[in-house]
Amino acid sequence: MPTRSEQPTLCVCVPTYNEAENIEPFVMAVLDEFDRLELPGLVLVIDDNSPDGTGEIADRLADADPRVEVLHRSEKNGLGAAYKAAFEWTGARPGIETVVQMDCDFSHDPADIGRLLAATAGADLVLGSRYVEGGGVVDWPWSRRVISRGGSWYARHVLGVRQRDLTGGFKCFGPGALGRIATSDASSTGYGFQIETTWKALRAGLRVTEIPIIFRERSRGSSKMSLAIAREAALMVPRLRWRAWRERPGAPLLARRTGAARRRSSLSSPRRAGMRLTRSVARSWPVLAVAASAATLAVVASPATAAYSAAASLFLLMFVVSLYTLSLMLYAWRDDHSLAETGYPEGHRIARHSFSLILPARHEEEVLPATLRTLAEQEHPDFEVLVVVGHDDPGTELAARQAVEGDSRFQIVVDRNEVKSKPRALNTALPYCSGDVVGVFDAEDQVAPGLLMAVDCRLQQTGADIVQGAVQLMNYQTSWFSLRNVLEYYFWFKSRLHFHAKSGFIPLGGNTVFVRSEWLEACEGWDGDCLAEDCDLGVRLSARGARTVVAYSSELVTREETPETLGELLKQRTRWNQGFLQVLRKGEWKSGSGFSRPLALYTLSFPLIQALMGLLVPLAFAILLLVKVPILLALLSFLPLVPMGLILVAELVGLAQFCREFSLRARPLDYVRLLASSVPYQLLLSAAAVRAAWRELRGINNWEKTTHVGAHL
Description:
This protein has a seven-stranded mixed β-sheet, sandwiched between helices. The N terminus is likely disordered. α20 packs across α24. With 713 residues, it is of the alpha/beta class. It has 24 helices and 18 strands. It is globular and about 90 Å long.
């Protein structure tokens, strides 16, 4: 065993956080490998103040063996920051020539260290690769295999490199290699650091090779991977490519200075990553579209110039819309704290509010009794339910009276408006409400018994004026489109609405929404002529300064069903899209402040964007296939595929997460359906947007009701 006075030439860097179960056996295995190879090696443990005592165990190992050193950091700042600290430490340590980085959970086999070292004879950087011949992964779930392979494929193609495993963390930097790489200015804090360091090595002209390894899933402890980490890596890859282009020889000096200024002024808080992305997208997409058109005009000189420019702008628009959509889908998962904030408060609950619940029902004899039973089972001590039925709908009225007979908490209110709609029914019931909070449910809802108590506590905890609870479609295996419809609701209520609420503009959901009665009185209830009365109410309340919070819990969601047929789904989406256009035309969203105005403009005008893409995208791709086009336009057509591919990956993982939260089982067929239905479903949504725009232009505003069959019961 070497003494401390001997100079090691090899350092194995091992970052740790809560690895008390793994640290000692792993370090001992590495030291045994040093002995077997007769290497003067050193193990550097970089511990981020692990609360489970990992750092103390590492200190004990260092006291017992001079070949172990410990670098303590005050807090958990991410894998990339840990490696940067380690590389700075090794750079200041005399005699260290070669640096190996490894995970502490035995995913990387210490017995492979010798093979990586041997490969440095012909390379400066050696990657332990899972995706070259002879490599592989053991005991990983299917979903994580998709994320890892997809991430490596994405990074390889965007960066234009040959290496197949860019996301792996088992690397060996040969003698002098780290000194030629500027790792200190690496921007990634998570697993994106692996991609960034390899990219920097390639840019510095280092020889990079891969050797096969078998990666095994950890048997002890928990993985540090999260959607927020994957998201950071995904967004970092195009940034690296852009930076390389901007800093190439001959690049305009203004571009380089602008990039430097942007880096100096960028926000550092990880919790605001989603806000930065959406703001930059909202502000830059018109400029990007114009730039694309100008670039196309510069290289094309033919009668087809206008068509080529329009196609280029369209592809750029598709890219920006897809990137924005991806950002909002993953907003809630940007870090652990954000994910925890999406739920309801835990602990003992005390009722301090009274509730008036309005339930409009029209031709809902089949599903209404089940909904009324779930409302009757509410655990809250102070609530009333007002069931609104039409004067021309005796069947629903009879079903309602039979279901609530003898229960004084329920009241039947008859809507005598000649023209029937949901907002008119809600306004009919509003004068009868006596609670200090008014809630809305639909006739087909299955309401969790503890929902009102949870909402009451959420109001107490936050002091908010509005609580938007979650609505979740459940019949995900009914049809190919029901699966996608279910996931839309999942990402909308679990993630996207939280961003809207924090931004000061929120199009409220159609039910499971709770508003303090004084706010409803101030804005005189709902707009009886609007086809998206929930969106309209949210816009008017947001403009007046009402504060909204959103809460999602699998135990407390209101369960609903997706429409039974494509025709019913088309009618439903048409109604929503046309309602958004009505709210856009009314213009009350302009009274918002700050970022809420551009966000409202984008959200409310999205049916027009969707309709435009639905009409022009097939034409643009037809031009690409049938006409010889400039190379720039052909390349630009591939740009939207990057975020679209990431959206598919997020949807696959989202399906697994949805089934896990609701104790359901996703079949392999469900994943196949999800992939295969992507294009048809987008065409359906585009058709609904086109239909909505046509109806709005023609002044057709009748309420197209969606039928319910109780598929979620």
